[in-house]
Amino acid sequence: MTHADFLTADFPPARDLPDVDLQGPGRYFNRELSWLGFNWRVLEEAENPRVPLLERLRFVSISSANLDEFYTVRVAGLRELKREGNQTPAVDGLTPAEQLVLINEDARALLNAQQKVFEGLRRAMAEAGIVIVDPAELTPEDKTHLADVFLRRVFAVLSPLAIDPAHPFPFIPNMGYSLALEMESKDGKKRLEALLPIPTQIDRFWPLPSAPGQARFIALEEFLLLHVESLFPGYRLKSHFDFRILRDSDLEVEDEAEDLVREFEVALKRRRRGEVVRMTMSAGATGPLVKMVKQELGVTDEEVVELDGMLGLANLSELVLDARPDLLWPSFTPRVPERVQDHDGDMFAAIRQKDMLLHHPYETFDMVVRFLQQAARDPDVVAIKQTLYRTSKRSPIVEALCEAAEDGKSVTALVELKARFDEAANIRQSRRLERAGAHVVYGFLDLKTHAKISTVVRREGDELVTYTHYGTGNYHPITARIYTDLSFFTCDARLGRDATKVFNYLSGYAKPEKLDNLAISPLDLKSSLLAMIDAEAAHARAGKPAMIWAKMNSLVEPEVIDALYAASQAGVKISLVVRGICGLRPGIKGFSENIRVKSVIGRFLEHSRIVCFGNGHGLPAKKARVFISSADWMGRNLNRRVETLVEINNATVKAQIVSQIMAANMADVAQSWVMGPDGAFARAATQEGTFAFNCHRFFMENPSLSGRGSAGAKDVPKLTHTDEEKAASSTG
Question: pTM for this one?
Answer without folding.
Answer: 0.91
